[in-house]
Design brief:
Two copies of one chain form a homodimer.
Chain A: E1 5-10, H1 14-25, H2 27-34, E2 38-44, E3 60-61, H3 65-69, E4 76-79, H4 86-97, E5 101-104, H5 107-123, E6 128-129, H6 140-147, E7 153-159, H7 162-174, H8 178-187, H9 196-199, H10 202-216, E8 226-227, H11 235-243, E9 246-257, E10 260-271, E11 283-290, E12 294-301, H12 305-320, E13 347-356, H13 362-372, E14 377-383, E15 405-411, E16 414-415, H14 416-429, E17 437-441
Parallel strand pairs in A: 1-2, 1-4, 2-3, 4-5, 5-6, 8-10, 10-17
Antiparallel strand pairs in A: 7-9, 7-11, 9-10, 11-12, 13-15, 13-16, 13-17, 14-15
Helix pairs in contact in A: 1-12, 4-5, 5-10, 7-8, 13-14
Chain lengths: 444, 444
């Protein structure tokens, strides 16, 4: 058996501590499986004195991540600090340049600098593993980078943010508002004090950017991802979706089209019968459509110290096993440039909820605007409301009133351009009392 | 780039032909990803002259698989013939002994001889990859052998036979009998002319045996798997399950218990809300419960030429990438002996359907027999029947008749021993008109 693999660990939060614990607990099993023992030789974290419930007395303490990352006593640098620049970026660059393997859970860093970092790893003949960066404990990176190598992939999509899925599940099951559910999520530790990054879709976008590169062999390009969060969703939308046979999920979707690759993160209507619709609470799921394999779906916990640590340790075992694979599945020089498909060219069905002023001619005008854009309607649900979308259906017999009525339209496949134009004109026509709600439907 | 990896392929059925096609189609991509080109240099199959729609003119033809497997012009032997002995076994042994890597889809061979073959691979420093042997295109072997290395696994279970799941899904959706659905499955090519191997659970058992070894680090032990097929299931059972909030699936389950490992294949009641209950038609799914990661579920096509070929080619890319991993996740010498937990000690809830002669005292007697075995009942559904279990509920007010009544019991957790004893006594008491139906409920 070779010399033990020496690990330098930066970041001792819940994930870091769980990694230390698992490595100690499974020491023999992992050495047997990989043929090489592993040992944490060096650590760094914000506070040196905090009691973390793990014995770090045998590890050298570093105050500076870069010094740790380049220490002679470190073979693999495990970066669990987070952040897309600063210490995380500097130390990962330093480690790779110094010929150290890197294992990281840092999606933000990779979404921003992944192409360069992968190149740096390649040039220095070292591994850069990041299973924990996407969907926590689900081995989706391995599945895409290795298990589906022989597939021409047409789409990858998933629920990759537990906070959002928790909120949407609660809204659906209990009829609570977004704000109420967010507060509960914060209380339970599922959402940050500042939840923007999660609920506006940025976190999902970082993960999607990595999956897109693996799926299509393209350079990582996170900046051009179309982004729409879940904050505008109301219980009316959730209920209307339910009645129409859908659920609403925050999906990240990367899709190959004739004009390039669509990358988008937005609330999405998915058929209740689909595998992805079944994913509730903080669970994550990723589905990949390949030409050979059809559709593969993986689900499991997307966050949590132990689940994420499980992915980090698996990455370490791959290093111990000397599984040399290009970080992005192929050499960076062979990655295709990312060609963005314009969002306006996106094709799909749409859910539209309008708050219509109940005046003669309003519906005719709306229908006319849709028709002008060649948009066909699959269903129209009109309900008398008192501010609320209710299950009571007064049908068309109710007489016109001053109060706006909720009208839900489901369109057949059309383009984003057509929908936006139709909605713009409908707003200008003055028949609606509030900004229209529009949710994309994903074909599954 | 190194010399091309030379592949010798035995078996040119749908999977073999799809492998040849994909390798040709993705030649450059695969070479880029793995750093090594691959080329089929030798083939063998039953008939040399058959037109298979692929160009094999550049390959050497062998009449004998053993000669092909040991040919100097072969680095990797790809065995796609099937069969747990004979040519498949001999050629795989010969290849490994000759220092060739082996990629195979042959679950029967591995279930029977996997321990020895893994040892042979290890002794000769070569790889033995078998992703395609379990759940077709789903990379579950890679997930368990690599992605979940750092988990202490407590259970693995899944739907691993598309034929059975197709039949059960049709029975459920259309209320058809087992025989009708089987005939349709045969007509559509989802079931063999002799379906025994699928519908009696043997095929699932072979796959389960491999997953058990990977999950628990134990020697493969297929012979001691408890086996019960789906042929005795009736539409009554399917309907009763539905009304009680369950679906019936043929599951393979491996579970660690205090007394050893349970390996069992049987029709199983699963809650409708569970991920596994959503798997319909020929789709497969495998779930793994690990201490770090919680539960991971993977679903996708479990069979079909292209899906299976996808797994074979991924295995080949792993060989090209030189991903040396012990075939069973650790050295054969380090595998623990398989200790079988007795099926009689199995603990769980049970669904019992009895055809009760409607005589005074019959129900009291049945309830008494259950109580004697300390079995508590979670629910009792009694229905007037005319041979059929119907949705009409006549309640207890109907007067006693000669016709037997269907009674469905759901028990709280008990043991297999207690249930069998209770059912034996109930049968002996003479109050029932047919052999009781008993279906195990899986906690999910």
């Amino acid at each position: 058996m070779s010399n033990p693999l020496k690990l330098g660990l930066a970041g001792l939060g819940t994930v870091g501590v769980s990694v230390v614990k698992r490595l100690a607990q499974l020491e023999n099993e992992l050495a047997t499986a990989s043929g090489r023992a592993m040992r944490v030789t060096a650590v760094t974290a914000r506070s040196r004195d905090k009691d973390r419930g793990v014995d770090l007395s045998a590890c050298e303490w570093f105050d500076d991540p870069v010094s740790l990352a380049t220490s002679e006593d470190v073979d693999v640098y495990v970066e669990l600090m987070g952040g897309d620049s600063g210490a995380a970026e500097e130390s990962v660059r330093a480690a790779l340049a110094a010929g150290k393997h890197v294992v990281t859970a840092n999606k933000a860093l990779l979404a921003k600098h992944g192409n360069e970092l992968a190149k740096l790893a390649e040039d220095n003949g070292v591994m850069l593993n990041f299973e924990a960066a996407v969907a926590g404990g689900i081995p989706i990176i391995k599945t895409m980078r290795e298990g589906m190598t022989s597939n021409d992939i047409s789409r990858v999509y998933g629920i990759m943010n537990g906070t959002c899925n928790y909120i949407l599940t609660r809204m659906e099951l209990e009829g609570l508002s977004f704000d109420e559910c967010l507060k509960d999520a914060q209380r339970l530790g599922y959402a940050e004090a500042d939840p923007t990054f999660d609920v506006e879709g940025n976190d999902t976008a970082h993960k999607l950017a990595l999956l897109t590169s693996l799926a299509f062999g393209t350079e990582i390009e996170a900046d051009s991802i179309f982004l729409e969060g879940i904050t505008s969703l109301t219980t009316d939308d959730i209920r209307a979706a339910d009645e129409l046979g859908f659920r609403i999920k925050l999906l990240g979707v990367a899709l190959r089209t004739d004009t390039g690759i669509e990358q988008r993160v937005h609330p999405t209507m998915v058929p209740k019968s689909s595998a992805i619709a079944q994913i509730s609470g903080v669970t994550n799921a990723v589905a990949v459509d390949g030409d050979a394999v059809g559709s593969i779906t993986m689900s499991g916990p997307g966050a949590g110290g132990d689940a994420t640590a499980s992915a980090v340790v698996a990455d370490l075992v791959d290093v111990a096993r000397d599984f040399k694979v290009y970080p992005l599945g192929r050499p960076v020089g062979e990655l295709k440039p990312y060609v963005r498909a314009k969002m306006r060219a996106h094709e799909g069905g749409y859910y539209i909820r309008l708050s219509v002023n109940d005046r003669p001619g309003a519906f005719a005008s709306i229908a006319h605007r849709m028709a002008e854009q060649d948009i066909s309607l699959e269903s129209i649900v009109q309900r008398r409301t008192n501010g609320h979308f209710t299950k009571t259906d007064d049908g068309g017999s109710a007489k016109a009133s001053e109060k706006p009525q909720a009208v839900v339209l489901i369109t057949y496949e059309t383009t984003e351009k057509a929908i936006r134009m139709a909605l713009k004109q409908i707003e200008e026509d003055g028949h609606i009392a509030a900004t229209p709600q529009m949710i994309r439907i994903e074909r599954l």
